[in-house]
Amino acid sequence: MKLTLKTLALGLITAASTATFAETAPASEHSVSGNIGILSSYNLRGITNAAENRGATLNGGLDYSHASGFYAGWWGSTLEYNTEGGTEFENDFYAGYNGSISEDLGYTVGLTYYYYYDIGTKDANGFETMIGLSYKDLSVTTQTLLEDTVWGNAGDTYIKASYSFPLPNDFSLDTALGLYAYEKNGDFVEGTTESFGFRHFDVGVSKDIGDTGIGASINYIIGGYDRYDVKQNNKVVFGLSYGF
Fold this sequence. Notes:
This protein is an all-beta fold. Helix content is 0%, strand content 55%.
């Protein structure tokens, strides 16, 4: 959810007196971008023992941002909960605000609504807040569920720290650490044994393929523990995406 601005071209105007000057056109206040991709496995927040899909998943999204810092967007992914090759689909609708404290320090606040299509229940849908800070290539976010769902309890908070480091030849080293604070019981999820714990650690490499808009990635998930203290398996995930 990085704020992006479209920069218009510089206009060079030649005056009749042979004097010349450069004029900068105003930058657009609006920016729209999109993406579509394939993952070998969609593992929500490090859960590898019960992945959101049994095989490759197709995902994509659209993002709008304004020069003021406001942003909104949608992200979706195919799922395979009930049947092989089923029609289950996750929709994430989000909006918020990106701001800066200094040249290197920024913040974000937002709200996400999760809507799941054709999974057999409406109790998976719910709202979640998001608050984050970023310093250069390091970011830390907290996401707190606001209502009880079949996949979490109101008050469950996912904490994620991400850091990317540029490598030679346009490669990037990408890392992420995920932690979770749990509410013990809710309307649908009961018997939680853990209140806080290590969820996952990811390390991977990604690369943009020239100016094609295509990016490739490989990510290794070191599995942590879920809310019942069940150890998650380590897993390799491959990805291919196209941004526009």
